[in-house]
From TrEMBL:
InterPro entries: DUF2189 (IPR018692). It comes from Thiomicrorhabdus marina. Pfam families: DUF2189. Keywords: Membrane, Transmembrane, Transmembrane helix. This is DUF2189 domain-containing protein. The keyword Membrane applies. The keyword Repeat does not apply. The chain crosses the membrane at residues 45-67, 73-94, 121-146, 172-199, 220-253.
Length: 278
């Protein structure tokens, strides 16, 4: 577990292994800078951007076509994707790191960037898996609260719209959105720094990284709240366009999140891995 010392807009954190990590306070205006840098990375890595964007776009489309007549399952799976987005963006973080070192983006290397810290990434994936499993159990309970027998789509030709315009469907969505937003906020707070830090620094453990991530979020409450809202709006845009907008949204947010991390965190220890070993 890390200890910390505060100095105005910066906080000094010391891990169990003696590493010195500095977290910095940022302003809401930095979000525009992160998105701008992310957009520039998209222009410099079009192949990788298209690849990762297409994977997410196809995933959203597949979920819609597979579960369009079972909306409860559709919304549950959609939430899974939102919670997994930070982990799925690992390859984009690696690509952005390559660009920052003036290297030519290597898609294959970015896809396996996690391999240099396999144990910690596996542990974090397990933690996310537990969270998702819990949410998977909660969703049917929400349906039961609003009388699941009435949540059938009345007109299959209208698909999800028939569900959303029904009284039971609207009641379900109120409870569902509150629960999903709360759980997604927790996942965001625990992961916003964790995954890029595991890529950046091979000496830190996942638990220490998660604790640090939470501390960074608390240090930048307003900025992180607006950033989380921005991510939520853009991801929602990708979902409601049946995945089409994900072609841009996924790489943009992945790259921007890497630049956000580098503005928020400075690893100051000679033993820390200076860059991702790709």
């Amino acid at each position: 577990m890390a200890t910390e010392v505060s100095h105005n807009l910066t906080q000094d954190h010391y891990t169990e292994s003696g590493e010195h990590i500095v977290s910095r306070g940022r302003s809401v205006t930095d979000i525009g800078s992160w998105l701008k840098k992310g957009w520039m990375d998209m222009a410099h890595a079009p192949a990788a951007s298209l690849f990762y964007g297409a994977i997410m776009a196809l995933s959203v489309l597949l979920v819609y076509t597979s579960f369009r007549e079972t909306p409860i399952m559709m919304f549950k799976i959609a939430t899974f994707f939102v919670m997994l987005t930070p982990f799925l963006a690992t390859g984009l973080y690696a690509t952005s790191c390559q660009l920052s070192r003036n290297e030519k983006p290597n898609l294959t290397s970015s896809m396996f960037a996690w391999r240099n810290n396999k144990a910690e990434f596996a542990f974090f994936a397990l933690i996310l898996g537990v969270v998702i499993a819990i949410w998977g159990r909660i969703t049917p309970l929400i349906a039961a609260i609003v009388e699941s027998n009435s949540l059938l789509i009345i007109d299959p030709n209208q698909g999800v719209m028939s569900f959303l315009t029904s009284d039971a469907g609207q009641s379900f969505m109120v409870y569902f959105m509150v629960g999903a937003a709360s759980l997604s906020a927790i996942v965001f707070a625990l992961s916003v720094v964790t995954i890029p830090l595991l890529l950046r620094d091979h000496n830190i453990g996942v638990i220490s990284a998660m604790i640090l991530s939470m501390k960074v979020v608390m240090q930048n409450k307003l900025v992180m709240s607006v950033w989380a809202l921005t991510i939520g709006i853009l991801v929602s845009l990708g979902i409601v366009t049946f995945g089409l907008a994900m072609l841009v949204v996924m790489p943009l947010l992945g790259y921007a999140s890497w630049h956000a991390f580098n503005d928020l965190i400075v690893v100051d220890d000679k033993r820390a891995t200076d860059d991702i070993q790709l």
